[in-house]
From TrEMBL, chain A:
Lineage: Eukaryota, Metazoa, Ecdysozoa, Arthropoda, Hexapoda
Superkingdom of this protein's organism: Eukaryota
Keywords, in A-Z order: Nucleus
Domain named HORMA: residues: 13-201
Name of the molecule in the record: (apollo) hypothetical protein
Species of origin: Parnassius apollo
Automatic annotation (TrEMBL), chain B:
The species this protein was found in: Parnassius apollo (Apollo butterfly)
GO CC terms: anaphase-promoting complex
Domain CDC20/Fizzy WD40: 200-427
Source organism, top-level taxon: Eukaryota
Residues covered by region (Disordered): 1-25, 47-111
Single GO MF descriptor: ubiquitin ligase activator activity
UniProt-listed InterPro entries: Cdc20/Fizzy (IPR033010), WD40_CDC20-Fz (IPR056150), WD40_rpt (IPR001680)
UniProt protein name: (apollo) hypothetical protein
Keywords: Cell cycle, Cell division, Mitosis, Repeat, WD repeat
Comp. bias (Polar residues): 47-67, 87-100
Gene Ontology BP term (one): positive regulation of anaphase-promoting complex-dependent catabolic process
Length: 207, 637
């Protein structure tokens, strides 16, 4: 009995790590699948039982690392409600596409949490990864309906934080973005039993 | 008119608006009041409402802006505007003229109502309504921005990720555009007809990537599933026969001929069954179940027919036995869309919507597979449908992924190695390679560096004489250098092993000379010793704006875009993309607002990129060089 508990115990930090790991792979997948950067700058990596492509560009890598380490901290402290991956046309700064990653906080396994004296979840890691895999497959499949990004693009990640959140160094407040005539598609959700992640892509509907 | 009477109808109308919804049946029954009476009533009503408005505006809203206009609007426009989109016939409270139509018997106590105030409140509501309408429109435009205004902070990391490299083109274009015959095919020496030999009509064929609706038998009969029917087309005689039609909404999801030119056809259906048909007698031999989802793929191995279905299972049916299901394998987590037995019958390859390609070894001495896969390849990035075993080399399998993948991979299932990966999206690259290889240099052109005008004249002597330089290019030396510096990145071409590329300076020189003189390409060909085709690629792709201190350049391979530059800073103002092949020509409209670009994609595109801002009517003071260039440019054809 006790052994079973230890195997299926996810702490808040572990859950935040899973979320940020998902974000890392999801963002990289989007960058690759949407053709933002040359495909030769990506390298395959096995994750969640599927092959995913990760950018090898040192600048992108460091950007994501910095972003996600900070985000993990925020998610841990329940400061973040949403992360938005924004794809921008370099030439006219127009927002072409936005991937919203909504973070919802869940209670996990209440009984187990009481026992352990900290908030923990009891969802099987395998099950979580299976759920993430399904989202990833959906991300890859989005290119069949998303419009071609026919220009030089860049991306940015905006963090929707709670009002009382402190702004760390090298961070700044951002302007809200908008996509005119946007179409939203919600992908599958997954949950670590402590965090629920909802992925939504909104894109400009072709005229 | 005296007070009480003017108030009467107004008050009734005002009251009625609140009661309108309560007794519609009642109001309907009163529609048959005499018309003459009504119209007169209407008139007085309108007048009254306007006067009431006026008094309101004067007394209460004395500070409101442009009262006359407002009032006009209120009298005529507001009612129609306030109507919900589309001219609905439902009675709206604001339609003053219509209200008497539905006069009811409700008689309120007039003594304790302040009608002026009531009316004012109502008309103010109208105003507000209008505001709300515009506001919602605005909010729709802002869209997501509004949802983001929920309490919270929007943060960004200030060290941004880099943009895509300059000149990088999204190669997904191939996915979005209809691919023509890959050029690699054209490179073969034999003749390949580009047009289909014959076209068969296939109405109602299901547009579904996951199904396998066509199979050609060894006896030259094509089985095609169209909707709920299967047709047999004899490719030799052209004879068409209908094999079967399923009932109701059932559809045929897969067809597969038995090996070796037999007449038996396996048919997978949307109701999760596999049917076996004798196509000579047009007779169904048996019906085999075992799945819970539609059967989208079938494969024969001797007397075994293996079926893959949406439930992710593979079932091996022995068509001879009463208990046909020999084994059920939980093969994939999602729909199976590809299933192929190797020619030697040793392996079964299955591809699924879970992006996996699994290889199943055969059970010793049997013709169906073990329940445990030999290899599971997860390198594909999309559903694996296309599977083909190499007919001459045992154990070599080719697999193709879906849209997101665009690769063909070659596997050796004996070793589990991925022998080769072919990137099907590299069509453009191949095209370009071909062009480079075909490059052939005329002796005249070969001597470019010795005798070409750029090398003999421009590079050395002309630069020493400022006046002559200006005369030659209509541009000062510093301007030229500045321009060159800004443009060189755009003009730079890569050297290849066949030729040295023409330097940016030389390209710019030809361009400017062309613009300054209006020389034909042929003239430039001889003086600069650059091929006409090359010149036509370089030249004609810069146009100056007559209204702004800007110039626009057209580009070829890579982005095929037009770039607008701020002059003389030479900063990018905008990039116009849209051409699918290089931009060959640019022209400015007579009024200077529109640029026409002609691309090699056989399109002419008009870009209204120099539209005049009415507030900035005054003529911009162009630099001398720019002006002179511009004059010459416009005087050219």
């Amino acid at each position: 009995m006790s052994q079973q508990q230890t195997t299926n115990c996810i702490t808040l930090r572990g859950s935040a790590q899973i979320i940020c790991e998902y974000l890392k792979f999801a963002i990289n997948s989007v960058l690759f699948q949407r053709g933002l950067y040359p495909p030769e700058t990506f390298k395959t990596e096995q994750q969640y039982g599927i092959t995913l492509l990760m950018s090898e560009d040192p600048l992108i890598k460091s950007f994501l690392t910095n972003l996600l380490t900070q985000s993990e901290e925020w998610i841990l402290n329940k400061k973040v409600t949403k992360l938005s991956l924004v794809i921008i046309n370099v030439a006219n700064k127009e927002v072409l596409e936005c991937w919203d990653f909504n973070v919802q906080y869940e209670d996990g396994d209440v009984a187990l949490s009481k026992e352990k004296n900290e908030t923990v979840g009891s969802k099987e890691l395998k099950k979580i990864q299976q759920e993430i895999r399904e989202v990833m497959l959906q991300v890859a499949a989005t290119i069949s309906y998303l419009p071609l990004l026919d220009c030089r693009c860049s991306f940015d990640v905006l963090v929707h934080a709670k009002p009382h959140c402190d702004i760390p160094e090298k961070w700044a407040e951002a302007e809200p973005i908008s996509i005119p005539n946007a179409q939203n598609v919600q992908l599958k959700t997954f949950s670590t039993s402590l965090h629920k992640m909802e992925t939504v892509v909104s894109y400009k509907l072709a005229d | 008119m005296d007070g009480p009477i003017t108030r009467g109808p107004l008050q009734r109308w005002a009251k009625k608006t609140t009661n309108e919804n309560i007794n519609p049946s009642l109001s309907a029954s009163f529609k048959n009041v005499s018309n003459a009476n009504l119209s007169s009533c209407n008139q007085s009503m309108q007048k009254l409402s306007i006067s009431a408005n006026q008094s309101c505006n004067n007394s209460v809203l004395s500070s409101s802006k442009t009262p006359t206009r407002n009032e006009n609007k209120k009298g005529k426009k507001t009612p129609s505007k306030n109507k919900s989109p589309g001219r609905s016939t439902t009675p709206t409270p604001n339609k003053a003229s219509k209200t008497p139509n539905k006069a009811d018997r409700f008689i309120p106590s007039r003594s304790n109502s302040n009608y002026d105030l009531c009316h004012y409140m109502m008309s103010r509501d109208e105003e507000k309504g209008e505001e709300v309408v515009t506001q919602t429109a605005a909010s729709e435009a802002i869209g997501r921005a509004l949802t983001d205004t929920e309490p919270g902070r929007l943060l960004q990391y200030t060290c941004k990720a880099p943009a895509a490299p300059e000149g990088y083109q999204n190669r997904l274009r191939v996915v979005y555009s209809q691919a023509k015959v890959p050029s690699s095919v054209k490179n073969t020496t034999r003749y390949i007809p580009q047009a289909p030999d014959r076209i068969l009509d296939a109405p109602d064929i299901l547009d579904d990537y996951y199904l396998n609706l066509v199979d050609w038998s060894a006896s030259n009969i094509l089985a095609v599933a169209l909707g709920n029917s299967v047709y047999l087309w004899n490719a030799g005689t052209g004879q068409i026969e209908q094999l079967l039609t399923l009932e109701g909404s059932e559809t045929v999801c897969s067809v597969s001929w038995v090996q070796g030119g037999g007449t038996h056809l396996a048919v997978g259906t949307s109701t999760a069954t596999v049917e076996l048909w004798d196509c000579e007698k047009i007779k169904r031999l048996r019906l085999m179940d075992g799945h819970t989802g539609r059967v989208g793929s079938l494969a024969w191995n001797m007397y075994i027919v293996s079926s893959g279905a949406r439930d992710g299972n593979i079932v091996h049916h022995d068509v001879r036995q009463r208990e046909h299901a020999l084994a059920t394998i939980n093969a994939h987590s999602q729909e199976i869309c590809g299933l192929k037995w190797s020619p030697d019958g040793k392996y079964l390859a299955s591809g699924g919507n879970d992006n996996l390609l699994n290889i199943w070894p055969i059970v010793q001495g049997q013709h169906y597979t073990q329940p445990q896969y030999l290899y599971s390849f997860n390198q594909h990035l999309a559903a694996v449908k296309g599977l083909a075993w190499c007919p001459w080399s045992a154990g070599i399998l080719a697999s193709g992924g879906g849209t997101a993948d665009r690769t063909i991979r070659i596997w050796n299932v004996n070793t589990g190695a991925n022998l080769n990966t072919v990137d099907t999206k590299s069509q453009e690259k191949e095209n370009r390679k071909k062009r480079e290889v075909r490059f052939w240099i005329h002796p005249i052109l070969e001597k470019r560096e010795e005798y070409g005008a750029f090398h003999t004249l421009v590079k050395n002597q002309l630069r020493e004489d400022e006046d002559k330089f200006y005369n030659y290019f209509r541009m000062q030396k510093t301007t030229f250098d500045n321009l060159l510096q800004k443009l060189s990145q755009e003009l730079k071409h890569q050297d290849t092993f066949m030729r040295e590329s023409i330097s940016p300076a030389e390209r710019l020189a030809v361009t400017l000379r062309y613009l300054a003189t209006g020389d034909t390409f042929t003239d430039l060909y001889y003086s600069y010793r650059i091929g006409i085709k090359t010149i036509s690629c370089i030249v004609c792709s810069i146009v100056w704006s007559t209204h702004y201190k800007e110039l626009i350049s057209g580009h070829g391979y890579a982005n095929n875009q037009l770039v607008i530059w701020k002059y003389p800073l030479m900063t990018r103002v905008a990039e116009l993309t849209g051409h699918v092949a290089r931009v060959l020509h640019l022209a400015l409209s007579p009024d200077g607002t529109t640029v026409l670009s002609a691309g090699a994609d056989e399109t002419l595109r008009l870009w209204k990129c120099f539209m005049l801002d009415p507030s900035k009517k005054k003529e911009p003071t162009d630099s001398k060089a720019a002006k002179s260039l511009l004059n010459i440019n416009t005087s050219m054809r």
